[in-house]
Structures are given as structure tokens and as C-alpha cells.
Amino acid sequence: MTLFSRKVDYALLILSYLYRRTGTARSIAERFGLSRSFTANILKELGHHGFVVSQRGVKGGYALARPARQITLAEVIEALEDGWRLTLCSGNAPHPEVCEFTHCCTLQGPLAEVHQRLLDVLRGVTLADLFEGHGCSVHVVPARSLPVLEMPALAADAVL
């Protein structure tokens, strides 16, 4: 299982192409070895959600609708995934699935917090961050700076 669907993967490839230059469905498809119809469908969906604009005619093609600094990774994922969520019981899905353990699950709260933190990170990453190769401003804590939890020693005759 991956965090992003293939549709999001391909949409990000297409958006990275359009970040650098305008292009036609044909030129984008050829660049990535995709079918032209598949590429056109992704472009149509990206246009529907306001990420790209198209122009017909001899000098026509596609371009980003907004500067890449104004489009976040979360926006793209949420638009293309129609209610992305980490678990069945988290997120803003329009038709949330009901988990049979909702009434007794002790993980719902903690997983909802993880879901929110992940969304916060994705909302802080713009397409420009991805495509410029500068990385993003996510602060990663080195493992050696994490506190070490000490466990009390067990007596030799303790029953586990």
C-alpha cells in the first residue's frame, strides 16, 4: 500500500512537467511513456479542480492555473482522492465507511491525531517545494536526540 494512488503519482508527474513548461497531452504523454488518452483524462481532472488551464488552437496546450507556490500537496491529494484519509474512521471522506470496532476502539483518537498531523505536513508542502528540488520545510528530529525510555528490570522469577 502506498500513501498516494497511481492517479496522484501521475498527476504530480504531469504537474512537474507543466511547472517547467507548457505542453500538450501528446508531449506530456511522450515524455513519461503514458497513453495520450490517459494523460488527457488526468489533465481534464486537474483542470476541473483548478490546477491547470487549457488553451485550444495551434499554440494551445496546458499550463499551471496558479503559481506552484500556491498549490499544496494536500490540495492535489484531497482533490484527486475524493476524501483522502489515513484510516476508515479518519478524514473528511464524503461517504465514510463504518468500522465495526468504532464503539470499542481505543485507537480512533490517536489515529485521528496522526491523520491531522500528516495533513498539516502535506498542507505545508507546495508543488514548488517538490519541483524545485529544495525539499520542504519539514523539521526531522534526528533519532539520537529522541529520549530513551528506560524499562525497570524484571526480577529473575517474574512471570510474564
The helicity comes to 40-55%
Strand segment tally: 2
Proportion of residues in β-strands: 5-15%
The CA-CA distance between the termini, in Å, is 35 Å
Name the average pLDDT.
81
CATH homologous superfamily grouping: Winged helix-like DNA-binding domain superfamily/Winged helix DNA-binding domain
Count of discrete domains: 1
Sequence of secondary-structure elements = HHHEEHHH
* Main sheet overview: 2 strands, antiparallel
Shape: elongated
CATH class: Mainly Alpha
Radius of gyration based on Cα positions: 22 Å
The low-pLDDT segments are 135-155
In which order are the strands of the major sheet placed? 1-2
Count, helices: 6
How would you classify the helix and strand content by structural class? mainly alpha
Return the CATH topology: Arc Repressor Mutant, subunit A
Q: If classified by CATH, what would the architecture be?
A: Orthogonal Bundle
